[in-house]
């Protein structure tokens, strides 16, 4: 299994996917530094604690709104063709003829993607928190920071598990489209949850929008985990930027659901892979 994990890392390095991601991340962090510096400009001339808290929440919301997209697309486009793509090229057939159980290959691939992308997510989280701390100060509640880190990194196994499951069912391109659309549906559900309270609609229409947003979030919980992370990290300052952080945040029950969702997607993908003919 260790060989499969190392091969997964080497594949991402060989394709220069990780290198491109790191270069673009450096560019993103440079822009984020400029935005954080601009938002926090007034605090240098003096400001109360409430305004400093609002600025910090705004900076965090902006950073992690786009940071969630970076993690999601890196996880999706790294693993969307891991099974179907290698099967079409004949690589998988040659590997599985060796005395290696299929489950070890699948689990090794999963650990490889989750560990590498999860490590990247950890570094991205730390960089954005440090930039925010420098410009607007940061909460000293390290429990909230650690919980937020777990939620942010927790989107990686969810996305990889679902992407590998889709790769067992669809072609490489088909799974890429499927995962992108599914993530977009989850993002749309989160956006509906954020703005429904600010729309001039009747109460029954607002309830319908709430149910629709919740259903879409259940289909793809990655964006919901990101919204929960922002809520914990900003200590519930959901009105700072309503378009990004408004609405009711996902509950602890949703986090538990996301864990079971990930385990189910991982288990179903492994079961389908073991029964699949190549």
Describe, in plain words, how this protein is organized in 3D.
GO terms for molecular function: ABC-type transporter activity. This is ABC transporter permease. The protein is an all-alpha fold. It has one domain (2-275). It contains twelve helices and no strands. The chain has helices at 2-14, 17-39, 49-79, 84-89, 91-96, 102-136, 142-169, 172-195, 203-219, 222-233, 242-245, 252-275. Helix 3 (49-79) packs antiparallel against helix 8, helix 7 packs antiparallel against helix 10 and helix 8 runs antiparallel to helix 9 (203-219).
Summarize the structure.
With 278 residues, the chain is mostly helical. Helix content is 80%, strand content 0%. It has one domain.
Largest sheet properties: none
* Helix count, DSSP H or I runs of 4 or more residues: 12
Computed structural class: mainly alpha
Write down the Rg. 20 Å
The residue-averaged pLDDT reads 82
Would you list the SSEs in sequence order as H and E?
HHHHHHHHHHHH
